[in-house]
């Protein structure tokens, strides 16, 4: 045999094994080198600082902005709640004041009404007590209603009465009619 043997897939001849082992360190050096290269390449992604990446910085900035907006909104909500409390308190105090004023006015009106009733009762003369009259068997005459006055004057409406110089027209005046007295108080074309 010759001292050299050809390995499959190899382009150069490798010396055949002889009594000496050729470079034993290559058997463990190549896998070690591959391991170190793998660790270096694989570990390069792990060693990068995530906090320094642009995506992280963008998210962190957005988070900070959002937290600031939330704090601002919380302050606005607290301010709005304070204003609502103040407005409610003011409304309740105004309502209480109006209720007190209404009660006072009611009391005053009641007093005025009592005074008015007292004055009216004092102003009406006491009617003499009817004396017992001897009873007769003849029936009492029926009360006679006043005869309506024949009016030769007629006003179509209040404008016509005013034009004639008759406004206001009172009950019993020539030209007085119910269509001129809308509120029925006896005075038309007021």
Automatic annotation (TrEMBL):
<dbReference type="Pfam" id="PF05901">
    <property type="entry name" value="Excalibur"/>
</dbReference>
<feature type="region of interest" description="Disordered">
    <location>
        <begin position="164"/>
        <end position="190"/>
    </location>
</feature>
<protein>
    <submittedName>
        <fullName>Excalibur calcium-binding domain-containing protein</fullName>
    </submittedName>
</protein>
<feature type="domain" description="Excalibur calcium-binding">
    <location>
        <begin position="154"/>
        <end position="190"/>
    </location>
</feature>
<feature type="region of interest" description="Disordered">
    <location>
        <begin position="121"/>
        <end position="150"/>
    </location>
</feature>
<keyword id="KW-0175">Coiled coil</keyword>
<feature type="compositionally biased region" description="Basic and acidic residues">
    <location>
        <begin position="179"/>
        <end position="190"/>
    </location>
</feature>
<feature type="coiled-coil region">
    <location>
        <begin position="56"/>
        <end position="90"/>
    </location>
</feature>
<feature type="compositionally biased region" description="Low complexity">
    <location>
        <begin position="121"/>
        <end position="139"/>
    </location>
</feature>
<dbReference type="InterPro" id="IPR008613">
    <property type="entry name" value="Excalibur_Ca-bd_domain"/>
</dbReference>
